[in-house]
Amino acid sequence: MPVMNDILAVILGGGRGSRLYPLTKLRSKPAVPLGGKYRLIDIPLSNCINSGIYRIDVLTQFNSHSLHRHINQTYNFDNFHTGFVEILAAEQTPVFTQGWYQGTADAIRKQLFQIKAARAKYVLVLAGDHLYRMDYAPMAEFHWENNADITVAVQPVAREDTAGLGILKRGAGNQITDFIEKPKDPVVLETFVSREDEAKPFICSMGIYFFSTEVLIELLQSNPHFDDFGGDIIPYAIKNCSVYGYDFDGYWRDIGTIRSFYETNLEMTTPHPPFNFYDSQNPIYTHSRFLPGSIVEASQLEDVLLAEGCQIQRSEITHSVVGVRSAIAAGTRIKDSVLMGADYYASELPSTPPIGIGANCIIEGAIVDKNARLGSDVVIRPFPRGTDLTEENWVVQDGIVVIPKDAVILSGTHIEPHK
What we know:
The protein is an alpha/beta fold and 419 residues long. The chain has nine helices and 30 strands. The protein has helices at residues 42-50, 65-74, 104-109, 112-117, 136-145, 186-190, 213-222, 229-240, 258-267; strands at 7-12, 33-34, 38-39, 55-60, 84-89, 122-127, 130-132, 150-157, 166-170, 176-181, 202-212, 243-247, 252-254, 295-297, 300-306, 311-313, 316-322, 327-328, 333-335, 338-339, 356-357, 362-364, 366-368, 373-374, 379-380, 389-390, 395-397, 400-403, 408-409, 414-415. The relative contact order is 0.12.
């Protein structure tokens, strides 16, 4: 019987991340902060470790410096452990003179030498921008019991969410019989109705693929023009291999847009969030910071996710995330916002205005990235959904105001819809 040590996990670091811009202006998608203190890459890495998978490759390409630093500082096994977390960056080789990855499948094809060197019998392919908690062991056992070539993790999905996902149909024994990536034609979509549940009549791929290694190598080498798993590999494999769908009924969210990032973070501020970071049996790991507890001075906080090392003075904060080292001056009101905090304290690098939120500000419906400096009396309010604007020091994506990393917003600035 195979064991979990026979598995190599490969986490895809993502492309340019244009739908998450400007959060990806200076970092890759998996390096984007999440939940006040984590990064997106912590999710698949933690799931692997909690599942007993200790051989992990992370494929990176764009804006990867902060991602590399985070992984190197966080995921180090001791000398007596056979596991590893390796970074495989895009590069030119004698075989591949065009070093950039052209898609998910092409990324793994260009690193097949390293993947073969691991001598793993199975390869688990994961995305670096999803939020979920999953034990991969039952999926691996499902794969082995069915003698599958490929197993795809699947989940029910609503009609309005199908446009950005891979939708599939299954036959007897959960074997996948048909697959379509990001369907646009409503007539074609109707042929993929697989469930009697009106709320979620379709089944989608979660972008989690479990391959028998020999099958993966054959598919990639025999089809050099196949760049993506969802668009190319999986539809082809369904006709030529045994491909099964493994049901996962837990929380799962693709954090691919500013809107999904914003809403997912705010979900964590509720008393009973859909994703629970307070799981002592399956924790989410991240970089260890030696920070003091947060100081909250004569303030009112309601439904707030508060990270460590913050300094909050006489402010009112509602339904918001307050990230590590956040500094909020007196008289400020914050609502429905995501503050990512700072990489260092203002005293370490004096600036005017200082890092954080100044006095007497009103911040609503915004994302404030790390190390941003907002002066006093700044007003930020959300725009109508669907609004997109790009200004020198701020951006509006789908109505959400985003203050980029290291941006400076001068005192008295108003960012709000015209009345």
